[in-house]
Each structure stands twice: as C-alpha cells, then as structure tokens.
Amino acid sequence: MDDMVDLQSMGKRARQASRQLAQLPSTVKDRALETIADNLHNRQDELLRANGKDITTGQNTGLPDNILGRLLLDSTKLESIADDIRRIAALPDPTGENYDIRTLPNGLEISRRRTPLGVIGVIYESRPNVTIDISALCLKSGNAAILRGGKEAINSNKALAAVVRDSIFSAGIPRDAVQFIESPDRTLVSKMLKLSGYIDLMIPRGGAELVRHVAEEATMPAVTGGIGVCHTYVDRTANEDMAVEIAYNAKTSSPYVCNALDTLLIHTDVAPTLLPKIASRLGASNVTLNCDSRALSILGLNSSLIKAATDLDWGHEYLSLTAAIKIVDSLDDALDHINTYGSGHTDVIVTEDHTSATRFLDIVDSSVVMVNASSRFNDGAQFGLGAEVAISTNKTHARGPMGLQELTSYKWIVVGEGQVRN
C-alpha cells in the first residue's frame, strides 16, 4: 500500500470519526479531555523517555538551541499542558450554540448554529505540545484531526498521540478522531495537501518555508499566516521601569516562539537614558542587540552583544536571543516602520499618553495590538481560550489566537409556520 493510499485511508477514517464526534454530547468530550490530562501525568515516564530520544538525536545532529528549546519536554511542561487541557474542558462547548436569533416581519424565525468544520489537518515543527493542544481543541469543538509533526520530534509526538488515542477511546470517542502520521517522509506533506476531499482546513505551524509551501500547494482552505515579526514601540511618555520590564519579558521569557519581541523601537527623546537600561537588562540574559546607527551612538560597540544592524534585521523573525533596536523621531515614524516591516502578528506600544495609545491601536493593522503589555500575552491560554491551534495573521475566517470558536462554522436555521415566498 503506497503512502497516498495510506493517507486516503486516514482521511476516510477521519471523516467517519468526525461525523460521530459531531453528535457526541459535551460530557463525553470533556471526559475524554480530562482523561488525556490525567494520562499525561500517569504516563509521564514513557513520554519523557520518548522526548529524551529526540533531544539526544537533536544534540547529536547539531540542532540549534532555539529548536532544542521548543522540543524539550519535562515534568513541569507536561503538567502545564495538562492544566491547559483541563481549562479547555471547562470552557463552554461552542457546537450547537444558536446566536443572532431574530424574527422577520413575515414570522420566520432565523438564527445561526455553530457547527464543527469537520477534519482539521495540521503540519507542524519542533514543538510536541502542539500534538496535545490541537487534539484537545479539535475534540472539544467536534472536529477530527490528522497531525503531521516534524522528524525532530517524531518519538515525542508518537508517544503523545498514543496517549491521546488511548484516552479518547476509553472515554467513548473513536480513536480515529485523532490520527498522527508517523512517517517523517517529507513527500507526505505535499500529498497531505492534496486531500481536499477529506481535510476541511489545513493549518501549518512552523517557519516561513513551511507556511509558503502550504500556501502554494494546499487544495483546501489553509491558515497561511502566523509568521511573527513582533514590535514594541517605547513612546516618549513611557514609564521607563515599565518599558524595561516589558522589553525584557517579551524577549527573554521564551525567545523561541512567534510572540517574542523582534524589534524594539524607541523614541529619540527617551533613548539616551532608557536604551542603556534596556540593553543592560537584556545583556544580563545574553541577548544580542542589532542596533541602528543612532542606537549604536548611545550604546557603543564595547560589548560582543552589541552589533550594527543591517537592512535584513528589519522585518526579521529571530526566534532566538537576538533583537533589533531602532531609534525613531515620532509615533508616526514608529507606525511607518511597523506597517512596512511587520507581519501582522503582535505589536505593542508602551506609553502614558492616551492619545498616542489610541492612535497606535487604530492604525496598526495586526492580529493583536497591545498597550503597556508584553507581546508574550498573544497566546490562546493567556486569552482564556485554553490553548490555540494557531495564531493567525490572516484576515479571513479567523485572526489572532485560534481557539474553539475559530474551529467552527455555522449553518442558518430557519423555522416557519407554512410561509411561502411571493
């Protein structure tokens, strides 16, 4: 049996499972999620052994630190993932919700009812927690899932998928509601993107190359945004202590993820006193700063962590302990830079001026725009969604963290009493 036949078979089983899943009550789905959360603890040793194999292979093959950081699982991370699943279980089930209910002048009662999308395909890299996040959100929203992780996390993902499939089966949900493609063969990605007869939505979770590949080849609707070039602009009225803490958290709390700080823009009026404070705090965590000429004139080149920026630094997603620094003359200059080099992911202003904050919120056209908060808050769990299947920078279907509601569509419900159209 060749790979395409295998994938077609997976698609057929997923479609059948999705129809059964869509009819299940919330209690069954929630019981399945609670069982997954429990088994992440009960089978922790098994999961950590599998992850250890991937970490060892990654170290031996020279994977960079940012990839290893995304790949690593430990007991604390597993407990955090389990907590996220329990939060998802506690959320309202979106499926079957009636909304926009109204009665027309002719007496017809019209509403919209949320329905699952059907089968979600996800292609992702490096981060094994995605296996659990996607599975949990898809199950809760009544969708089946076909998952294809990267080869660097193959052992971790296989073990996590086995926990999910065993858990949901014991709770009364078909195993095939969640399927994992165990082969790391890269050609399967292109074949998966041709399964429009079975997969209703495709979501890539990875770097720019993967996202472009999905955008070019997917035969089904796809979420092809998500590249995170995140800016923080420090306005002339910013509270300096707040600005230092926000910049530090946005860059160092988890530098390998898409909502981490990439470019720091600082108003020229506060740069002479504020930039050295920020640089000192970031330098203590070994953050390299690629600075424009004006920032360099303030900081100098007396540290190996201070470097001259090039044009390639603007609009660059680092996913590492590196950030770009640029001095700007005004809010308008910051807005021009963000609108030129941003990816529509997450952009932040630090300011005490209400007018500046409002103007920033109105003009920056990103999926998430923040005032006086770290860009790291752009996260499904932090937004109260439990987790996310992706952070979308698209403007159609869904934008920002995609949770349960973003994995549903709707159908119109019309109830009459014998009305006919003239």
Description:
- There is one protein chain.
- This protein has 422 residues and is of the alpha/beta class.
- The chain has two domains: 3-187 and 402-414, Aldehyde Dehydrogenase, Chain A, domain 1 (3-Layer(aba) Sandwich); 230-377, Aldehyde Dehydrogenase, Chain A, domain 2, CATH 3.40.309.
- 42% of the residues lie in helices and 19% in strands.
- The chain has 14 helices and 16 strands.
- The protein has helices at residues 3-22, 26-42, 44-60, 65-71, 75-90, 129-140, 154-170, 187-192, 208-217, 240-252, 271-283, 293-299, 331-341, 354-363; strands spanning 98-103, 109-116, 119-124, 144-148, 178-180, 201-205, 230-234, 261-267, 288-291, 306-308, 322-328, 346-350, 368-371, 391-392, 400-401, 408-415.
- The strands form four sheets. It has a seven-stranded parallel β-sheet with strand order 10-9-11-8-7-12-13, sandwiched between helices.
- Strand 3 (119-124), helix 6 (129-140) and strand 4 (144-148) form a beta-alpha-beta unit.
- Helix 2 (26-42) runs antiparallel to helix 5 and helix 6 packs parallel to helix 7 (154-170).
- The longest helix is centred in the first third of the chain and has 20 residues, at 3-22.
- The protein is globular, with a radius of gyration of 23 Å.
- Residues 1-5 have low confidence and may be disordered.
